[in-house]
Design a protein that fits this description.
Rossmann fold, 2 domains, globular
Length: 255
């Protein structure tokens, strides 16, 4: 199996490759690409930034299908271009927040998000409503560390761990959360790489969306390959755009 991991920003996540190497199946190969040639920022946490990094992310997804990949995983909690991607390619496309929320619904009656800041949490709440997965959301709480500062050369991982654990505890004790979703892949990799300490400190499961999204991509690729399922239904929401209009739009956007 071959999976393309798309980072919808400039550069790679700290611990990203290490995190996925730890949990991939032995027969799964993956590569990691970013969009740094057309999007210069290492974060996308604001609404305008999210819009600006969507088109180059979709280009990476379409290229993955042309390259013969079995699935694509978009590694970012804002699930950049996820629904658009499913309407463009026939291989499965997964992303971070949607996958974590789907798994959360199998594991707990109430879950909370811990996010980088309040507005980023509001964006993710909006996305969960779009997915129809917000009914069990107990709360979202920010950890107060900007996404740009979550890289280990700017904030030591132990500091991120300490703050994230403190916020997650409050979600459990004050909001009634039975499970925590790490609302940023950087936060998730820090917590999941210390899972014994994380569980002991918080007392409830913590989902790293990078792990759940990648494993969901493996599962969907298997389902499509072994049962003949398509990557997405073409009956309505994920219909392919008309080919003529699609090609005309792409031609108009070329320099």
């Amino acid at each position: 199996m071959r999976i393309r991991v798309v980072n919808p920003f400039r550069g790679n996540e700290a611990r990203g490759r290490e995190n996925l190497e730890r949990i991939r199946r032995p027969d799964t190969e993956f590569d990691v690409v970013d969009i740094g040639d057309s999007y210069p920022l290492a974060n996308n946490q604001f609404l305008y930034f999210r819009q600006q990094c969507t088109a180059p992310t979709l280009e990476r997804v379409m290229q993955a299908e042309r390259d013969g990949c079995d699935a694509v995983f978009i590694s970012c909690n804002l699930d950049i271009g996820l629904y658009e991607a499913r309407s463009l390619v026939d291989i499965p496309v997964t992303a971070t927040l949607e996958s974590a929320a789907l798994v959360a619904h199998m594991m707990a009656a109430r879950y909370s998000l811990i996010t980088v800041d309040h507005q980023n949490g509001m964006i993710q709440r909006m996305m969960l409503r779009q997915y129809g997965l917000d009914g069990r959301l107990a709360s979202h709480r920010p950890i107060g560390i900007d996404a740009n500062d979550l890289y280990p050369d700017r904030t030591p991982e132990e500091d991120v761990f300490r703050v994230a654990v403190d916020v997650a505890r409050r979600c459990v004790e004050e909001d009634g959360a039975e499970l925590i979703i790490a609302g940023c892949t950087h936060i998730g990799s820090v917590l999941s790489s210390r899972m014994d300490r994380t569980l002991a400190a918080i007392g409830v499961p913590v989902l790293d969306g990078m792990v759940t999204g990648f494993k969901m991509a493996e599962m969907m690729a298997d389902a499509c390959r072994l049962t003949g399922l398509p990557g997405a239904s073409r009956a309505g929401y994920f219909r392919h755009p008309p080919e003529g209009d699609f090609q005309a739009l792409r031609a108009a956007r070329r320099p």
